[in-house]
Amino acid sequence: MPETLRRDGNRTFLDEYAPSAIEHGATIYDVGGGSQPFVSLEAKQRFNLTVVGLDVSSEELAKAPEGIYDRAITADLCKFVGAGDADIVICQATLEHVPDVAGAIRAIASILAPGGKAFLFAPSRNALFARLNLLLPQGLKTKLLFSLFPSTDDGHNGFPAYYDNCTPRDIERLVQDNGLVVKDRALFWMSAYFMAFVPAYLIWRLAQGVSYGIRRGNAAETFIYVLEKPEMNGRS
After folding, report:
1. Least confident of 55-59, 108-112, 127-131, 141-145
2. How far apart are CA 13 and CA 97, in angstroms?
3. How many structural domains does the chain have?
4. Alpha carbons 52 and 31: distance in angstroms, whole number
5. Would 137 be classed as within a structural domain?
6. Are 78 and 174 in contact (CB under 8 A)?
């Protein structure tokens, strides 16, 4: 397959996009990171970062490495109103788990300081695995996930997913509605869910091709966005 169809979005986010988010002395909000914050304690100390964890679960926040969060906020992202003090917002594989992505994007806009940037990674609602996720009962799909991918049964996976407004087109509309600017976008066409069984892989690729013919870029499996909140005087 062409390389463009083999790039993994989450791996690209971790290796290429998110590292550029770390700036010396920055205030970083890790939205939905919970027990697995994006920034390591070593990186926090080396770059003199202020790291704020925001998660709906106080239990998840409490499981994070000691000292990683300067402040831990237990709140529903869909309803949260920020103080406009973040230089960087990291939102990795979180948007698909919130029931109101419009509220989440509004919250992210309120968290960012003028000139601040948000780095988002999420799977798309139009991916075949997402459609199946929405159709299957929570208990059954969790059992299938842990059976097919035993390494995911580590207490950090299997959370309910809604995929509300979770497509590139929807994200761009909500970004514009909240006064943010898209600085970069990357679409990806790879996921690991169907790789273990050749017939499933072939069916998935066929379905993906049909979906692309109808939806074009909106048929992507996953996507990355880098957003910026314009300066008060309109410069970015």
Report:
1. 141-145
2. 18
3. 1
4. 8
5. no
6. no
Q: Give 158's Cβ-side CA count (13 Å radius).
A: 20
Helix, strand, coil percentages in the chain from 3-state DSSP, rounded to 5: 40, 20, 40
Which residue range is the domain that position 24 belongs to? 3-124+163-191+220-228
Quick check: 74 pLDDT over 80? Answer: yes
Rg (CA), the chain: 18
Q: Is 227 exposed, middle or buried (0-12, 13-18, 19+ CB in 10 A)?
A: buried
In a domain, 85, yes or no: yes
Alpha helix locations (H) across the chain? Answer: 9-12, 41-46, 58-62, 101-111, 128-135, 138-148, 168-177, 198-215
Coil, strand or helix at 45: helix
Q: Residue 88: which CATH number?
A: 3.40.50.150
Task: Please tell me the pTM assigned to this model.
Answer: 0.88
- pLDDT per residue over 144-192, tens digit each? 555 655 554 455 555 788 999 999 999 999 999 999 999 999 999 988 7
